[in-house]
């Protein structure tokens, strides 16, 4: 592991993570992504000075807008998005090093962070974030497969993606109110991302581990909410964060989880 690769990846994640505020804020409201990202979301007045610098924008967001007096509802969200993105991409850099796959999983990390933030607040998994993430990540995985000579990994990724999509589609059809179709799409993305990992057919097992981790985390958090906040069994809890967490855990420690899992079953 090269420390400079991890450091550069983490810094890049911090900067790009702060810019995720653009889709997180605007996609659920069907707003254009082309408008200046440093503008006031209420009156569209542009901010000046350091307010246009990523990460530093949080300083201006905690103050009322000088033009309309509006107060930002989530002043610290860009900072949270930055830190989470930096940590995850830095961890991925430690996992992959300076390899072609790092770019693909960096895209995955940013997409998952944005989708998680949107799903927590709005209970939707936006296709305007999911499809570009899937498309760009898949393209970069093709490039990584060509450069690394791992053409079989693309087939495993496709099988895992279709399998995860099919599993969640069956759950969605059996209980539409319990699993949204956005989660079905996201499961396909997670399946492709984790199914590419290997070697060989191990990628399919790692994808299964990602789904398993997501369900375990969902069950634990759901149980805790029932105990602490009195949630009922029919209370809706966004599942995208658990799928995202399962994907990250599987990317980082999927081989160890599968080894422990199959070793216990064997």
Describe this structure as you would to a colleague.
This protein is mainly alpha-helical and 266 residues long. The chain has 2 domains: 79 residues, no CATH class; 167 residues, no CATH class. Helix content is 70%, strand content 0%. It is built from 10 helices and no strands. Helix 5 runs antiparallel to helix 6, helix 5 crosses helix 10 and helix 6 runs antiparallel to helix 7. It is globular. The two termini are 32 Å apart. The model has no long low-confidence stretch (mean pLDDT 87).
* Helix segment tally: 10
Radius of gyration: 19 Å
- Number of strand segments: 0
Termini gap: 32 Å
List the helices and strands and how they pair.
Elements: H1 3-19, H2 21-26, H3 57-61, H4 77-96, H5 100-122, H6 127-148, H7 151-174, H8 181-195, H9 202-228, H10 240-265
Helix pairs in contact: 1-4, 1-5, 4-5, 5-6, 5-10, 6-7, 6-8, 7-8, 7-9, 8-9, 8-10, 9-10
Features:
single chain; 266 residues; mainly alpha; 2 domains; 10 helices; 70% helix; globular
How do you describe this structure in short?
With 266 residues, the protein is an all-alpha fold. Helices cover 70% and strands 0% of the residues.
